[in-house]
Amino acid sequence: MTPRSLLLVHPVTWTIWLGTTLLTVSLTRNPLYLLLLLFGLTLVAETERPTGRATPLDPIFFAVIAVSFGALFNAATIRYGDTVLVALPASWWLIGGPITLEAVVFGMINGLVLSALVAGFGAFGTAMPISALISLVPRAFYPLAVVMSVAVTYVPLTIRLAGQVREAQQLRGHQVRVWRDGLPLLLPLLIGGLERALQLAEAMAARGFAADPPSNQVRMMLVGGLAALFAGLLLQFAWGQVVAASLTLLIGTGLILWALRESGQQAPRTRYRVYRRGIRDMMVLLGAGLTLIAVLAPWPGRASLAYTPYPTLQMPIFEPLLALALMGLLMPVAVRLGDHYLP
Amino acid sequence: MIEFAQLSYRYPDQPQVCLDQVSLALPAGSFTLVIGPSGSGKSTLLRCLNGLVPHFSGGEVAGSVRIAAYDPIALGPRVMSRHVGMVFQSPEAQFVLERVEDEIAFALEHAAVPREQLRIRVEEVLDLLDLAPLRDRLLTTLSGGERQRVAIAATLALQPEVLVLDEPTSQLDPQSADDVLQALVRLNHDLGLTIVLAEHRSERVLPMVDLVVALDRAGRVVSGHPREILANSPLCPPLITVARAAGWQPLPLSVKEARPFATRQGLAQQDAIAVGKTGEAGRASATGPTRQQRPYLEIRSLEAGYGTTPVLRNLDLTIAAGEITLLMGRNGIGKSTLLKCMIGLLRPRRGEIRIAGHSIAGRDVAAISRELACLPQEPESMLFADTVADELRTTLRNHRLPVNEALIDELLAQLGLSERRERYPRDLSIGERQRVALGAISITRPGGLLLDEPTRGLDYEAKAMLGGLLRQWSREGTAIIVVSHDVEFVAEIADRVLILGQGGLIADGPPWNVLGNSPLFAPQIARIFPGRGWLTASDALQGLQRG
Amino acid sequence: MHGNLQAKICNLKWSDMRDRLMSGMIIGFTTVIGIIAFLYPFWLPTVATGGVGGAHAGTAPVILTTLVGLSFLALLLEAQRAAEHALLVALLGVLVAMNAILRFIDVALPLPGGFSPIFVLIILTGYLFGGSFGFLMGTMTLLVSALITGGVGPWLPFQMLTAGWVGLTAPLCRGPIQLLGGVGRYREVLVLAVFGALWGFGYGAIMNLWFWPFASGPVEQYWQTGIGFIETVRRYLTFYLATSLLWDVAGSLGNGLLIAAFGGPILRVLRRFQRRFAFVLRHVPLSEGL
User: Fold this and answer.
1) Number of domains present in the structure of chain A
2) Fewer Cβ in 10 A, N or C end of chain C?
3) Residue C224: its chain A contacts at CB < 8 A?
4) Which residue in B has a C-alpha nearest to residue C6's C-alpha?
5) Nearest to residue C239, comparing CAs of B402, A125, A78, B478?
């Protein structure tokens, strides 16, 4: 077996994959495709999971809960649809009225969409080591990336410290009887943490660390950008000026992105760990690209993505070509399993 | 290279100056040791070298510092990081990232060193400090000594001309400390790196250094060749104390240098038969008569450990009331496991432990600790109250005992903390904080006391005070068990020394028998005067007077 | 080379004013955009059915999500000014680590509902060290705890933003506390506890609104089923009663009780620390902005 903790494709490739997955899932309402996606994404999460690391949230388990909840809630609140299963007395507050099969199915689809999204995030989360995720943080947020690194580094240390404090307090007769007895455990941990922060800060400063605050020019751009966004929002939704709104929104977006870029370039940094791109990235990107074309390009099969059970429940259409294209998102599995055969 | 001219510094909101008109000149390529009691401003002096003082501390500065052509007070730590590297005391609290390699590269990434050069520099420092085999490891899995070497590597990656270290070995065991110090010597000799090192236990470092800077509590400084400074310094290792008393000239700085003097005076007997006799004679006055034989702690066929393999097997031990027992042994050999069994933090697999005649099986830690108090390795993790007296009250309340102010006053007086009664414990010096923790565990007047590595980070003065306190309590009948690596401290206070080996005790006896001839555990004095049975400076001084 | 270095750090008055103005504007715009976006499930159906200006209902969620994302980034960049000193970066890192562990406990233990201990430190640090610090504390806590538990999900950005808001608004307690003259007394803790309890409901409500589109289906449904504003509110109410009311009550009570019980001692510890490094913490920009 290959060591499974290794990152086989570039973090940016993974991010593009996640983006494609999220877009695909949110454009799909056909329960057949959604099920396919759900199982496919769960498979990706499973093959990417480093040996020994538990799946924090089993996507299938989550799906069972989300689908049941969606069905219950929608059926109880929507009075639409032709196939009436049972009619609750209309006098029941909030939930009285007919319960329809269509509403049940609609609710289940809602649950499926959410579950597929969760499965996509789950695959991404298990595949990416934390350091790779931090390396994705844009340069404008360099100080925050450092904060994240420090926090991740200090989590195991703090857990050890907590054990130490607990033992030390036991040694002076401390027992947790009521919940306020947590204080002698919490305070030394907090004080210790603050003292550690001081020492760490000195060590960081001694190694030349100092963050550069964004310049006033950058902040002016931010203010301008936000003002434009706000104006665009009003134009679009309150006054209905679509063209003017789009223009203003674009300007605002541009200003904010520009501000981020500017502040990222204020202080140059280099990176020690570089992730290489190679044939594996190409494969994953091609797979994702195929899916993206299938769900966005105007071709007849695309219509089967949409589905609504209302007003009368019908069997959703299944287009094999489209289903095949959706499987493009499973390319990471192929890369992982076929790693030996790739250069 | 380094020049201080009339430098004075005062912390914000402090009435008196911390550094008082310090003038120093340290040449390039020198290895300088900074000594002084706790709170004398060693750390402050070092932090002036890279601008952390005053940029990180506020306060007022007068006079000037120059590192080559650079002025750290004007330039600040960011610029100075290219010229002065600094390593701190705690092997835990100076890391930003999880892995060795990333940690070393952190400063370089931040300084935007081009990538090709970055890789070369990381490789260089990895080799320089023998860290290449550890490069992919998580920092949390490294030992303290390895972590300090990573910290040194991480600062050296920026290629500074000066390396400053603030008590880098005070939290380490002797073996790791030696590794770190050897690495420093190599850097100094091979690269010509200028090194400034603050260190409590000068005995390990003195033979290696070119210059000594000594601070006193008033913030004044003297500097010079180690022999000159140590001839007058109040803080010195046992070797120097003896050498000064015996009038040896030039003053020997290492055991090797001292041996010829001892041989010339005919004091180094190689005759093994004499060991027992003179040894017993030399120490009889110190211990013999106070020994009490009432057993306090009894351990019968103890087996304990974690996971599948037991750490301790079939261990038997009886400790008497009023006895000071020192437990020594390699790291990871089971000293802490034994300690944890005694206070109920770890349930033994087999065997029995009795305290004052009662088995501890089934009693919880809180109940046991009232009878047998234990000072953990990190006494700080105990302290959280607003005042010193409150810490003691908290323990009494925990045990549901009446809060007796007279008892608290008495104990604080014993601990030398009467004046600190209303202070915030965390603001005190390391030694004082340790004594507060000691007070917090012993306010219940326990019959026995366990201490885990109590001399870590203590200076000579605090160590002497702790020794005195333990002696007094043992005279009052308390059984005291200390786990320690610090042979000089062990030699000073022990009535009995136990050495733990694989699975059980491999040596048990009075200190001169166990330590005197051990190649590993012999204190400095025993090495200078082999076969005399002298272990401490006072043994040697008495012996020298007599003959 | 004689003199007090602190003098260098003190800002001139007018640049201080401009500083506050810019901070205020960035926070203001972000908050308004956020509120509009979070409430869109309510007003969108009316817009959609009314067909004002032919705005296509399908694009609205995308636009709004993008806007919230952008203003979140803008606010994060502004708040990052709080982390300009190495001490604050280290402090944030260490406190976030502690808080992330608390959240770990909260995820692992079946605690009642929305009861989460993470808000204690977010609110207290926000109140003492300034809104920016609190904002970063909130966002980073959620982010880091998601990373270490592997719980990265579509809800993460919303949790980050909301928890950030909790910290950002904590300095609002300063006014009432000063009014009651309660700095350093139990009244101070009481005000903070009430604030925490209120946010218990607020956090629940915002997280509900995030989840709402998944419970109610895409916007097109309103076209097809023809339900309007009243209908939407009725559905939301059912949803709220069924899923969140107990949850939020527990969360709110938990926040309030935790702050009431632990707030005083924690504040004392943080204040001691703040005094030692007053000169570093002084130029936290947003603290006075709110």
Assistant:
1) 2
2) N
3) 80, 308, 310
4) B58
5) A78
pLDDT in tens, A140-181: 899 999 999 999 999 888 988 998 999 999 998 888 777 777
Q: In this structure, what token pair is assigned to residue B175?
A: 């073996």
pLDDT recorded at residue C108: 61
* B449/chain A closest Cα distance in angstroms: 11
Residues A88 and A227 in one domain: no
Class of domain B288-509: alpha beta
Distance from CA of A219 to the nearest CA of B (A): 23
Within a domain: C180: yes
Residues A207 and A225 in one domain: no
Q: Which of A143, A150, A205 sits opposite C94 (nearest CB)?
A: A150
Contact (CB<8Å) C234/A130:
no
Q: What is the pLDDT of residues B179-234, one digit of tens each?
A: 899 999 999 999 999 999 998 878 888 888 999 999 988 888 999 999 999 888 88
- Is C5 domain-assigned? no
* Nearest CB to A272; choose among B118, B139, B384: B118
Q: What is the pTM of this model?
A: 0.88
Which among A23, A44, A24, A43 is positioned nearest to A33, based on CA atoms?
A24
In a domain, A197, yes or no: yes
Q: Which of B245, B210, B257, B216 is nearest to B38 (CA)?
A: B216
* CB atoms A168 and B398 under 8 Å: no
Closest alpha carbon within chain C to A246: C63
Query: Residue A87 corresponds to which tokens in the numbers above?
Result: 């009619």
Residue B347, chain A, CB below 8 Å: the answer is no
Cα–Cα separations (whole angstroms), residue C72 to B260, B500, C30, C259: 75, 60, 7, 27
Residue C193 lies inside a defined structural domain of this protein: yes
What residues of A are in contact with residue B375 (Cβ under 8 Å)?
171
Interface contact A175-B384, CB threshold 8 A: no
Question: What is the C-alpha to C-alpha distance for residues B539 and B314, in angstroms, rounded to an integer?
Answer: 36
In CATH terms, B2-235 corresponds, of 3.40.50.300, 3.20.20.140, 3.90.1280.10, 3.40.50.1820, to: 3.40.50.300
A244 and A165 housed in the same domain: no
Between the CA atoms of B197, B201, B203 and B206, what dihedral angle is there, to the nearest 10 degrees? 10
